[in-house]
Amino acid sequence: MPTASSSRRTLSRQRAEPSFDSIEVDEPTQHNVEDVEEDEDEEPRPRRPIVKKAKKKEKMRQTAQERNVDEDVQEDDDPLENFGDQPLDRGQAQKLAGMASDWQTIKRKNLTPYYTVIRDVSTAFAEFADEEQSTEFLEEMETLVRQLLDTETELQAHEQTLIEINQKIARNEAITDIIDRYDKGVDRNLDAYRQRTTRQKYAKSDEYAHFKQAIFEVQNPGVPMPPLTDFIPREDGDESDDDEDVVVGGVTQDYKCPLTLMPIVDPLTSEPCGHSFSAAAIREFLGPHRIAKKKCPASGCNKYICLNDLK
């Protein structure tokens, strides 16, 4: 029947086309192909191990370690340090002799002129000033002369040390520790001087004798000056005052050879210091070289003499 047929079609259409009003719309459980492809593109890529960065850091670390090792090796293998000090040759010994003469020049130019100035000023003051003023002033001048002599001895300590090293090189002795030898040699010479008594330091000094002589002649005209030891109190270590020296107006002459301690035979006198020796003894002491200087063997003398200085 028409009516029934129409109703069935309507029902079939309703079933085939369900109403969205009566059906709850859910999110689709599956994506279409395009959505899946887009999602796959948007998904984060799987994290890979940072192998390259780790390797790079490791390589940099190894390079830094190798660089530090190389620097340590370079420091340890310093060629100059391993080379060591070399012995001085004769050419360098000549330079030492020149340096020794430089100390002598310093003394001659910077110290010697002041002795004359001090002596002239002191004699003028002793002649024209009253006794009280002159006594105090002359004591200060005498102290100044002694200080100059001390400084002169210090310069001679440097000079003598260089001469000694030069002589050792001339005897083919290997000298590698030049600085250490020089420092110790200077200290040794200065210590020996400091251990002397006041008499031993100044009583045989020509400059000190000239200073005292000039003042004494002004204060005591026409009177011979006694020996310098009379002006310097005796200390422990000084020889007895009643020695065998012959004293003439403040100048001391010893007729015993300082080397043999016997009466002088065939005397030779040193021009720089005035000391006399037995000819055979002083020649043996100085050696065969006529210009090779050695310290005068007379007690308390700081002069250096050679065969050419003997007359």
Automatic annotation (TrEMBL):
Residues 1-88 are annotated as: Disordered. GO terms for cellular component: nucleus; Smc5-Smc6 complex. Pathway: Protein modification; protein sumoylation. GO terms for biological process: double-strand break repair via homologous recombination; protein sumoylation. The keyword Hydrolase does not apply. This is SP-RING-type domain-containing protein. Keywords: Coiled coil, Metal-binding, Nucleus, Transferase, Ubl conjugation pathway, Zinc, Zinc-finger. It comes from Wolfiporia cocos (strain MD-104) (Brown rot fungus).
